[in-house]
Amino acid sequence: MKIVLQHLTKKFPARGSVRGRKNREDVIAVNDFDFEIPDGKLIGLLGPSGCGKSTALNLICGLLKPTEGKIFFGEDDVTGLPPENRGVGMVFQNYALYPHLTVEKNIQFPLENLKGADKLSKEEISKRVLEAAKLVQIDHLLERKPNELSGGQQQRVAIARALVKLPRVLLLDEPLSNLDARLRLQTREEIRRIQQETQITTIFVTHDQDEAMSISDMIVVMKDGIVQQIGKPQNVYDDPVNLFVAKFLGTPPINVFSGEVKKEQLYIGSEAVLSTPGVSDQPVHVGIRPEGFLLKEDGPLSCDLVRLEVMGRDVSIVSTHEKSQNVTIRSIIDADEGKSLPTGKVHFGLKPAKVFLFCTDTEER
Ligand code: ADP
């Protein structure tokens, strides 16, 4: 089921505003979302806290009404429909399980109050519950109560409960944030597996770029209610549209310098570090991915070594670039390449595909 958002906007009135007086500015939590989510894909909605991710999800599931715009599931306009008539399954970060009910009863809860043609027989309910429990691999835990389960198992119950009504769309709001690091990793792979098995169009909200990049078919990067970029994770990483997106994706984060283009050469400090054919003279922000540096004896960027960390395949080099006020550079090179690792001074060349130039007047769209 594809999801189409047309000029979807949600404004909240400014807090503490007084009637009759000019209000403080409204918060535009979701600002003119206008894009399509293809059928059967997993989409990561990604951005810092407060950028409007949950609001967008709540609009799509029907818990909030948009100020403007429309939402379609396939050809159906669902904008005016209440959540129960949209065919969405929702999973929240706190699982929201009923503590007094067994796992089985928790999963079957959404099926109990179906009316009319949707009403299911007892046998059908048991069958559906077992199918959902098997899908998330908790069918051996059906008799337990939530407090007898680990966090990861509780989240699986929540996912089974969201899937048991065979929703058209699955919405996950920060589903991993209450889990410890190891379980987070396991559960995110699990979510990917379940999504691929069921082929349900799924929206996954997170502030964690690693999480979104690793399991999504497509990511939507947001800031202050505005979509900054949409694309395949690798494409967005390789070709960020602005400095905000460049900085938001990647661990360790991108290195940022002030630079200047003069006569088709990029200068950082007084050194020409890269030729930039076709770029007109102007000041720029320069973003260089950690893997964009090459150890090179006559390389134009000369730095002071601060720390070397050999991490199996990779060597992480932390150094400072004295000509630009000792800006710290975090670079990663292949262990092979670093056979004679630097001591004291480090000289870098750059890989052009890993260097991005951004105009200096704005960080975002
Ligand atoms: P995120 O999920 O990315 O952390 P939210 O969607 O929760 O962001 O919030 C986006 C913006 O909308 C924030 O500035 C938040 O304070 C504001 N907001 C969210 N819900 C309400 C509400 N019910 N009333 C007023 N402002 C709200």
Automatic annotation (TrEMBL):
<feature type="domain" description="ABC transporter">
    <location>
        <begin position="3"/>
        <end position="249"/>
    </location>
</feature>
<dbReference type="Pfam" id="PF00005">
    <property type="entry name" value="ABC_tran"/>
</dbReference>
<keyword id="KW-0547">Nucleotide-binding</keyword>
<dbReference type="GO" id="GO:0140359">
    <property type="term" value="F:ABC-type transporter activity"/>
</dbReference>
<dbReference type="InterPro" id="IPR047641">
    <property type="entry name" value="ABC_transpr_MalK/UgpC-like"/>
</dbReference>
<dbReference type="GO" id="GO:0055052">
    <property type="term" value="C:ATP-binding cassette (ABC) transporter complex, substrate-binding subunit-containing"/>
</dbReference>
<dbReference type="InterPro" id="IPR008995">
    <property type="entry name" value="Mo/tungstate-bd_C_term_dom"/>
</dbReference>
<keyword id="KW-0067">ATP-binding</keyword>
<dbReference type="GO" id="GO:0016887">
    <property type="term" value="F:ATP hydrolysis activity"/>
</dbReference>
<keyword id="KW-0813">Transport</keyword>
<dbReference type="GO" id="GO:0005524">
    <property type="term" value="F:ATP binding"/>
</dbReference>
<dbReference type="InterPro" id="IPR017871">
    <property type="entry name" value="ABC_transporter-like_CS"/>
</dbReference>
<dbReference type="InterPro" id="IPR027417">
    <property type="entry name" value="P-loop_NTPase"/>
</dbReference>
<dbReference type="InterPro" id="IPR003439">
    <property type="entry name" value="ABC_transporter-like_ATP-bd"/>
</dbReference>
<dbReference type="InterPro" id="IPR003593">
    <property type="entry name" value="AAA+_ATPase"/>
</dbReference>
<protein>
    <submittedName>
        <fullName>ABC transporter ATP-binding protein</fullName>
    </submittedName>
</protein>
